[in-house]
Amino acid sequence: MNKFLSSIRRVRNFLQRYFFNNLSPIIVIGAIIWHLCFTDINYLDICHNDEKIRSLQKEIANEKKKIEQLHEEIRHTKSDATTIERIAREKHGMQQAHEDVYIAIPPPDTANNLNTRD
């Protein structure tokens, strides 16, 4: 019986010395790794989302600049009669009563025609 009890004590001492003393750091490291990688709010997702946020903020800033330029162009266009006339002629094909409008159609691409003959 003494041999059995002494072997149990040896196993218990071994477990206390090598396993239980190192158990708390193992648990802490495991919990940190679990939290950083596998939970709903993990570090990897946070970093990925931060990159998305930064790129979207840059895109928003660029779009705001474009909007401001367009607003400035609209303000300039509303006050300038020659610009209004130029836009009407170019984009809408409008003409004055005494003018004739000719629309030039560019010739087809000659490189495509040469390739189809081969």
Briefly, what is this?
With 118 residues, the protein is mainly alpha-helical. The protein has helices spanning 2-37, 43-79, 81-92, 110-117. It has four helices and no strands.
Structural notes for this entry:
- There is one protein chain.
- With 118 residues, the protein is mostly helical.
- The chain has two domains: 1-39, no CATH class; 42-94.
- 79% of the residues lie in helices and 0% in strands.
- It is built from four helices and no strands.
- The relative contact order is 0.03.
- The mean pLDDT is 79.
Structural features:
2 domains
Give the helix/strand layout:
Layout: H1 2-37, H2 43-79, H3 81-92, H4 110-117
- Stretches with pLDDT under 50, minimum 5 residues: none
Strand content: under 5%
Number of strands: 0
Largest sheet: none
Helix content: over 70%
Which structural category do the helix and sheet elements fall into? mainly alpha
N-to-C CA distance: 101 Å
The figure for the number of domains is: 2
- Overall body shape: rod-shaped
Total of DSSP H or I helical runs spanning 4+ residues: 4
How large is the radius of gyration? 39 Å
Order of SSEs, N→C?
HHHH
Overall pLDDT score? 79
